[in-house]
């Protein structure tokens, strides 16, 4: 048997089970016979059973009420008269009252039905949903501001025309040459280096071509001055004179920068702008400022970028190019000044100082 069961622990478990079974069998056989006999219990008598049954219903804990207490509970309670008194029957409503209540009741019902119907109609029709049940969002029209129309400066966009040689005005030519003689004489003595830079006269054909390209006529005094000295040399109020080609090129450049008529949009005078195509620049300071002459009014002004034209260069009014040329000759000969500009000579070169208010 031990050969069939190879596990030691299984053999020990079987041996323990056999020993346990033998011990249990021995103990059962050694039990005494008195323990195995049932004890006879006598049955109780009827009297004993009756004595053990309790009476029903049980007696109250607070005692059994007597006749007097029961009589008190049997007496009806005394209630106030307004609780026991029955109200008198109301008389029926008369015919007019019933008709009034009926009519106004019908009106109230009609108003209720109307309110309910209106609410239903509003929720059905104006619920913000389309046929597909999706919210309907109304489009708000976009308000686009119409930009102000751009008005081109007609003076900056002249029509093409052929150059035209104009005859000189003898009176203007003599007056301009007279002032140049005074200036040249003073420069020869006091500022020889500046005198040596005086330019040669411009050619009338060059002036005619520039006038045709700009669509403007140079004032007679400016034209006569260019026909004596074509720019260069004498500075006017601290700025260098321009020759004919530089006058035309500066005019074109300024028209490219601002070739519109802003005064038409804000109802201001075109002379209050910083540039207008009817102006003719004849000097430049190299920083964007120019002395110019109005081809219509003929007075002299000064323009700097983004600043209105000022028609009081040096703080004084100059009514024409000839007036500026004469004031320059006077200032050189007398040592005076033009507004707050005073001429001086530095190593043979004419220069101008700002000396304050005139």
Polypeptide structure, described:
The chain is α+β, with helices and mostly antiparallel strands and about 350 residues long. The protein has a domain of about 190 residues: SMI1/KNR4-like, CATH 3.40.1580.10. It is built from 12 helices and 6 strands. The strands form 2 sheets. It has a 4-stranded antiparallel sheet, covered by helices on one side. A two-stranded antiparallel sheet has the order 5-6. Strand 5 and strand 6 form a beta hairpin. Helix 6 crosses helix 9, helix 6 packs parallel to helix 12 and helix 8 packs parallel to helix 10. It starts with 7 loop residues before the first helix and ends with a strand. InterPro entries: Knr4/Smi1-like_dom (IPR018958), Knr4/Smi1-like_sf (IPR037883). It comes from Streptosporangium saharense.
Q: How would you describe this structure in keywords?
A:
alpha+beta; 9% strand; 41% helix; 358 residues; SMI1/KNR4-like; two-stranded antiparallel sheet; four-stranded antiparallel sheet; 12 helices
Write the layout of secondary structure elements.
Layout: H1 8-29, H2 46-52, H3 67-74, H4 81-84, H5 95-125, H6 170-190, H7 192-195, H8 204-214, H9 220-226, E1 240-241, H10 244-257, H11 263-266, E2 279-284, E3 289-294, E4 300-304, H12 321-334, E5 341-346, E6 349-354
Antiparallel strand pairs: 1-2, 2-3, 3-4, 5-6
Helix pairs in contact: 6-9, 6-12, 8-10
InterPro entries: Knr4/Smi1-like_dom, Knr4/Smi1-like_sf
Transmembrane segments: 12-29, 100-121
Keywords: Membrane, Transmembrane, Transmembrane helix
